[in-house]
Design brief:
two-stranded antiparallel sheet; binds ligand PTJ; alpha/beta
């Protein structure tokens, strides 16, 4: 991405955070991000500030468990919204390759133009197949009334595990009711999504996705995958994230 180094000098103490902002703004201008996505990012930034803008030991545990779960799954899907497409399209494609997951576009503020723009961005980064766009999203998640309910019958609808970055809580709850295992990436450890998911990675998606790819590469072929997921306690992990933000650990 073309970042204006006159506006954001590389030695600015908050350069990284400001670059990530620019990626969102660029994504908005290119039709990937909903205007509401910029507001959602601001909320995320506030939590990231409290975390110290780093991947904590607590988040690393969740990342490891998420990687193990993705490798154990038979039909996993990475759900992609506007913010995810703007921040880490290449990492989505790479993680899908490493864990043999499908990629599906699923957006809250649904428009056909944005669905297509997100699909094109993923394809530009090497995705061969992108589900959930247009009429292919013909299945419905029961008891969900937002536009997120429309899913691909061969994708999220049939999935055993769904990775949902930057989510609104309703769909996570609905997916769990459908007996799917849900992995969330959410900087807010207090959100309904974080609480409803089976594994929540409290980290910035921009840092979490490359770590998830690395963990999946390391764990591929390991005989301890089930043990890693069985030993993971999401409630405790969320409480530890809150303690980190409060400076208690
Ligand atoms: O592209 P769409 O139409 O699907 O819309 C996407 C947004 C994000 C606008 C939509 O899903 C939404 O309204 O989400 P919420 O309910 O605002 O929740 C977003 C959550 O993601 C909040 O808990 C934020 O703290 C968190 N968040 C924001 N930025 C990041 C993040 N978590 C991880 N990494 C981030 N960079």
């Amino acid at each position: 991405m073309n970042i204006n180094h006159i506006v954001i000098p590389p030695d600015h103490p908050r350069a990284k955070s400001l670059y990530i902002r620019e990626m969102l703004v660029s994504g908005f201008r290119r039709g990937l991000v909903a205007p509401e996505g910029l507001i959602a990012h601001g909320r995320g930034e506030a939590y990231d500030y409290l975390l110290g803008e780093r991947t904590t030991t607590t988040a690393k545990l969740a990342i490891n468990a998420a990687a193990a779960l993705l490798l154990l799954s038979n039909r996993s899907v990475i759900s992609v919204n506007g913010n995810t497409a703007a921040l880490c399209p290449g990492a989505v494609v790479e993680l899908a390759k490493v864990t043999r997951a499908n990629i599906e576009v699923n957006i809250f503020y649904r428009t056909e133009e944005r669905e297509k723009a997100i699909k094109a961005e993923l394809e530009l980064h090497g995705a061969k197949k992108v589900l959930g766009v247009g009429s292919t999203a013909s299945a419905r998640i029961p008891e969900l009334y937002s536009e997120r309910r429309r899913v691909d019958p061969d994708g999220i609808y049939a999935a055993d595990t769904v990775l949902v970055p930057l989510e609104d809580g309703d769909r996570t709850e609905a997916l769990v009711k459908m007996n799917k295992t849900v992995i969330a990436i959410d900087l807010n450890p207090l959100s309904r999504t974080s609480k409803a998911a089976n594994i929540t990675i409290v980290d910035n998606i921009e840092r979490a996705m490359p770590s998830l790819i690395e963990a999946a590469r390391k764990l591929k072929g390991s005989t301890s995958l089930k043990k890693i997921t069985d030993n993971f306690d999401n409630r405790k992990n969320l409480q530890d994230s809150i303690k980190t933000m409060k400076g208690e650990i």
